[in-house]
Design brief:
This protein is mainly α. Helix content is 64%, strand content 0%. Helix 1 crosses helix 4 and helix 2 packs across helix 3. The radius of gyration is 22 Å and the shape is elongated.
């Protein structure tokens, strides 16, 4: 469990994910989110409980773990991510400000567009149609 202001103390990944699921409202809330309409709510909740049971074969796949950690971030719960930082030998990072993240993405798009314009120009100088290159 996490004590506010300290590094999260978890036994292992299952312990950390159990805490994340608790922070997100428990298996009945998380199950339908991860499984969509593929299972009724009670079965989806049981599947989550099974994934968090060391004795069971069911486990979250890596994309589901990321989905859980992203949802926890949205809820302001960072203990799982901080535990991973600690386990992997990283400093604890703080969440990005969504405006800063959006600005960074926009900057990458602008650089990509500039690169694309340059490549199109080079193709045209070589007498090639840029549309032909795409097809």
């Amino acid at each position: 469990m996490n004590i506010e202001g300290s590094l999260p103390l978890y036994e292992d990944t299952i312990d950390m994910l159990s805490d994340v699921v608790r922070a997100l409202g428990g298996p009945k809330k998380v199950g339908p989110t991860l499984r969509g309409n593929s299972l009724p709510m009670e079965q989806a909740a049981q599947w989550v409980r099974d994934c968090l049971n060391r004795e069971r074969r069911e486990k979250f796949d890596p994309e589901q773990v990321l989905q859980l950690l992203r949802a926890a971030r949205e809820q302001g719960f960072h203990a799982g991510k901080h535990w991973l930082d600690s386990e992997l030998g990283y400093e604890q990072g703080r969440p990005l400000n969504p405006k800063d993240e959006a600005a960074a993405i926009q900057e990458k798009i602008n650089h990509s567009l500039a690169d694309l314009r340059s490549l199109v120009s080079r193709l045209e100088r070589l007498g090639q149609s840029p549309l032909k290159a795409v097809v």
